[in-house]
Amino acid sequence: MRVLLAVPPGIEKLELYKVLGLRAPPLGLAWIAAVLEKAGHKVRIIDSPTEGIDLKTFINEVKSWSPDIVGITALTPTIYKAYDTAKAIKEYDRDLPVIMGGPHVTFMYEEALKNNVDVVVRGEGEYTTLELVNTIEKAGLNPSALREVRGIAYLDRGEVIVTKDRPPVRNLDELPFPARHLLPMDKYTLFGKPIRIIHMMASRGCPYGCTFCSTSYFWGRLVRYRSAKNVADELEEAVNKYKTNIIVFTDDEFTLGKRFVYEFLNELDRRGLEINFSCGSRVDTMDRDLMKALLEHGCTALYFGVESASQDTLNRIGKRITVEQAVRVFQWAHELKANAVGSFVIGFPWETLNDMKDTVKLAVKLDPSYAQFTIATPYPGTPLYYQAVSENLIEDWNWEHYTTLRAVMRGYKFTRSQVEKMLAYAYRAFYLRLGFIMREVKEGRLSTIITAIKNTLVPWFVERLLRRD
Description:
- This protein starts with a strand and ends with a helix.
- The protein is α/β, with parallel strands linked by helices.
- A 7-stranded mixed beta sheet has the order 2-1-3-4-5-6-7, with helices on both faces. The protein has a 6-stranded parallel beta sheet with strand order 10-13-14-15-16-17.
- Helices cover 44% and strands 16% of the residues.
- Helix 16 (353-366) links the parallel strand 16 (340-346) and strand 17 (370-375).
- The protein contains 20 helices and 17 strands.
């Protein structure tokens, strides 16, 4: 089968992409493509925003390549562009099967099936997509045949059919490496600047189930690690092929499995691989020795989700950490001169404006290398979403606004406008400190920060503060 996998056109115009200036490779599509290619199917990936392809050009590409199936991926804020793409495909050829996957449609499959999508791939996509493609090859979109495919949703004479869940891939080493050869690897950017980066994932799943995060509900609570050798093999191949040693691990909790981490670092030593990499961690799974070992092996940035200064909020969202643990970890980061990024979330329904200010104060106290502030957003599939729906807190149902940069729900004691102004306050309070500015000057990074703020954050904040709705 000829399978076209796509990131939908038009999403580069959305707020999320404008603010970050980010073009990151669709690793999920590349992994699905690799599994399909291994099974003998012919695959093409169109990363529309990265390649500058608009909807008209995309449809022309569909016409010229003549795929047997089109698969589209989307997140919540990009879902309307995905639906527009599906509609355009059906206007060109109503019989061309359109499948869609990703976190949003995994939980909102009924919505997707009303928007020109034939089949939704729920959850982890590699083997579900493979079985689905094989089924369509043999039987088309025959409803009876589709019933045998685990992990999908589709319509049968107007009735939504949800098949049995597909168990997660237990042995991730059995997956082929992502098909990066199908991606425009020289066109990815950060803050609008071209930078060749290898994105990798060493594990899947998260056991914590934080109420605002969809990771545990999409990938599952079972944490599955690839072997250190398998990860190092992929890394070595990618570094040699794409001539870069800049690696980003996209795992939510890269350091959760300490045994894996130390085995991986030993693999780097054994192979003589000198890389610069960043990864996510938790303040309760990090210790000083582990941080030191990571830094000695090229770790240039550690990302920690601190979330809140309120222990009550940390308990309510299921974070399972303490404020004291955060203080300790960032103290180690200062002692070891590590680049540690702190992530903070404001606007949980029960919070007051003073609670949010306390979180900003904690960020300043911890003094991470950089701070990320976001607004609590009720993504479909998360406990926060179901709480917000049941308590009628959501006031903005435009999925494009679910970027964590806009408030889409009110709180018990605050309005959406108030929390958006608090987000602007948080960034000002952290980044306009004399101490922070002097540090960036000393490290020679001030020009990069100024450019990023000038081109992205400032226009966004001005527009937010002036917005009347």
